[in-house]
Amino acid sequence: MDALGGSQALVPHPTKWSGLLAPLLEQAGVKSWETFMRKSQCLNLEATEDRLKLIPNRNLGTTEGFEPMLDKAIDVPLSSSPDQIGTALTDALALCQ
């Protein structure tokens, strides 16, 4: 919940692309974007005043990226316990393709 609270909706679009992915690839322990994407999963989180929506994504590969699967979204009250939110996260990740 701390990470979600620290996130922002309107992050400026990068103007310099060189080296932009290097920290991500290093943290993932891979050397290339292709290797990273091979087994990556993406889960979008959308928080409103009282709800948390977890949206699984379909991995379309290195050029197409991720596609949200809105029909598989899981919606929970933002006031849910950490265990309930953790279960929802696990369930939503299992739906990613």
Q: What would you note in describing this structure?
A:
This protein has 97 residues and is of the alpha+beta class. The protein has a domain at 41-97. Helices cover 32% and strands 22% of the residues. It is built from 4 helices and 4 strands; from the N terminus they run αααββββα. The chain has helices at 2-5, 22-28, 33-38, 82-95, and strands spanning 43-47, 51-59, 66-68, 74-77. Strands 1, 2, 3 and 4 form a 4-stranded antiparallel sheet that branches. A hairpin with a 6-residue loop joins strand 2 and strand 3 (66-68). The model has no long low-confidence stretch (mean pLDDT 91).
List the helices and strands and how they pair.
Elements lengths: L1 H4 L16 H7 L4 H6 L4 E5 L3 E9 L6 E3 L5 E4 L4 H14 L2
Task: Produce a short descriptive summary.
By secondary structure, the protein is α+β, with helices and mostly antiparallel strands.
- Unreliable stretches covering 5 or more consecutive residues: none
What is the count of DSSP helices, taking H or I runs of 4+ residues? 4
SSE succession: HHHEEEEH
Overall average pLDDT:
91
What structural class do the secondary elements suggest? alpha+beta
- State the total count of DSSP E strands: 4
Report how far apart the termini are. Answer: 24 Å
Beta strand %: 15-25%
Rounded Rg: 15 Å
What is the overall silhouette?
A: globular
Helix content: 25-40%
| Biggest sheet layout | 4 strands, antiparallel
